[in-house]
Design brief:
By secondary structure, this protein is mainly α. It contains 14 helices and 3 strands. It is about 45% helix and about 5% strand. It starts with 9 loop residues before the first helix and ends with a helix.
């Protein structure tokens, strides 16, 4: 019986190709100036306790890297020193082979007490790049595109009516309040779950009006959507949802959180909606879909793009085209009315003529 040759794995093939195409790098291949930096590097404890043993290893690692700037080179010396201190404490060999992604992940998890999240991320990122020079089979494939999260589909008109019936017909006052706030502020002002974090009763203004009250929400910006965390946006609640929002505000003190009892708690909307009793015919209630429905509604209105983006807290409009397939196609009459213009243009011509 013929024996089939064993197939070579993709990782093994990459490793073999790297071995064939990459000449052996030695510490002596470092530029003289950087080699001198390694020789003169005088770290304090705990790196100093192992430096005589590992400095040739560190030099070999850095010789194979593209790190050549003096400041960057000095940082990498320190990062590698601390990494090998961790390796010694965990009985891992103090060799180039030890610098692997898996060991770096474990080091980042257990070997950086007291470091900030940013410091851990920076150190891990730099060490990963060094490790990939020596272990190309562990490196992620180049040019891998990470798909952008897609917008959740908005609710249909029929589903919106079912959501409103559910909000108004809960078996208890507290459940009604939670449903009214999540659904009313989602459909009426585009609030998502993160927007409810720290949102209190005094963040919602109710202004008396001749026909019905006008409601405006002051939403503190979150780092998830903007670079600034101190700015705020002011979002008018759509009139068809004002009554529902007012029901959700009943009984709340001025400084009371709208949802939950802990200001920094995450998933506030999801936790509140978990208590809601869903009536027959009502779809699953998701805050992201409520927000998408609000966005889709505004896209069908004569609302300026910059106003929509400001109200939604968006830095770019790249997510908005994802909603277009869910919008009803415009009629020819609607297209004409939207694009042709009307009295304002005629009034401008008359003013010019005068």
């Amino acid at each position: 019986m013929a024996i089939r040759p064993r197939r070579t794995s993709a990782a093994a093939a990459r490793r073999l190709l790297a071995d064939q195409n990459t000449p052996a790098i030695k510490a002596t291949d470092l530029p003289a100036e950087l080699a001198q930096m390694v020789q003169q590097f005088s770290p304090g404890p705990p790196i100093s306790t192992i430096w005589p043993q590992v400095h040739p290893v560190v030099a070999e690692v850095l010789a194979a890297s593209v790190v050549r700037g003096h400041d960057s080179f000095r940082k990498h010396l320190t990062h590698l020193g601390y990494f090998y201190v961790w390796a010694r404490d965990h009985d891992v060999p103090l060799t180039v082979a030890t610098l692997t992604r898996s060991n770096i992940e474990e080091y980042a998890r257990t070997g950086m007490p007291g470091s900030s999240a940013k410091s851990r991320a920076d150190r891990r990122s730099r060490l990963r790049r060094l490790a990939d020079q020596h272990h190309p089979e562990q490196a992620p494939a180049p040019h891998v595109e990470i798909a952008r999260p897609t917008v959740r589909p908005p609710y249909t008109d029929r589903e919106v009516q079912a959501l409103l019936r559910t909000a108004w017909n809960q078996p208890s006052a507290e459940r009604t309040r939670k449903a009214a706030l999540c659904i009313g502020l989602g459909l009426g002002a585009g609030l998502d779950s993160s927007d409810f974090r720290g949102l209190r009763r005094h963040h919602i203004q109710v202004t008396p009006d001749s026909s019905r009250p006008l409601v405006t929400v002051t939403v503190a910006e979150t780092a998830a959507r903007t670079a600034a965390t101190t700015a705020a946006r002011f979002v008018p609640v759509r009139v068809e949802y004002v009554e529902l929002v007012l029901r959700g505000l009943e009984g709340l003190g001025s400084d009371q959180l709208l949802l939950g009892r802990v200001e920094e708690r995450r998933n506030l909307a999801a936790n509140a909606l978990a208590d809601v009793v869903v009536l027959g015919g009502c779809p699953r209630i998701e805050q992201s879909r409520l927000r998408a429905t609000w966005l889709a509604t505004l896209l069908m209105q004569p609302v300026r793009l910059d106003l929509l983006m400001t109200a939604a807290g968006l830095r770019t409009a790249r997510t908005l085209p994802d909603l277009i397939p869910y919008l009803p196609p415009p009629t020819q009459e609607e297209t004409g009315l939207a694009l042709r213009g009307g009295p304002p243009a005629a009034a401008a011509r008359a003013e010019v003529a005068a």
